[in-house]
Amino acid sequence: FFTGTIGIPILLFIYKFLPSIYTELPHSENLLFQLLGYVFQVGLCEELLKIAPVFIYIYWKKNNNEDVEPLKIVILGLFSALGFAAFENIMYSLKFIENSAILAINYGVQGALEGTHQAMIISIARYLSTVFGHALYSGIFSYFIALTYISGERKYALFIVGLSLSSLIHGSYDWLTSLQPTFAGFIDVGAFILFYGYVLKLRGMIDLSNIQNKN
Asked: Is the whole model's pTM more than 0.85, yes or no?
């Protein structure tokens, strides 16, 4: 809820002050520039936004002299992403409605039918794929942050690796979606396998850490 109602408006406000050469990269006619734009503009900014509740949780725990729980970091990252995806899809749905109205004004009944058809197909595709994808990308980023509270070292390095990897996967998915949605689906499959492996590894590390603390 925080990410959707507060985070997204803040992100849109920040976009207004960023150079147009940066914000327009995803819309470039050059495929390489498109990819760079999706990774370093869309992926980077959205992943930083979605991870904000994780740092609020960490700050809250430290401020109250309580232990930060690595698995809760991952869970918060997942739910923050789900909230972001839900509100983002609402915004896109409103755009699809506006587009349908414009087509109806310009082309009458045929335009209204075409606009409604496009809105339904694209909306369903987004609901099925982007919600799942957003959760995976933020889950992967959250995993690397959680690692810092198990290893107790390389915090900045792990943060950069997590941000870079999640932004790369996120941006690659968006880029492929604009070219061939079927291929983009394989990105999410790979992200799920990666995230699942990370969660298993994290649980193993937590169990090992608990055993060592008891000993």
From this structure: yes
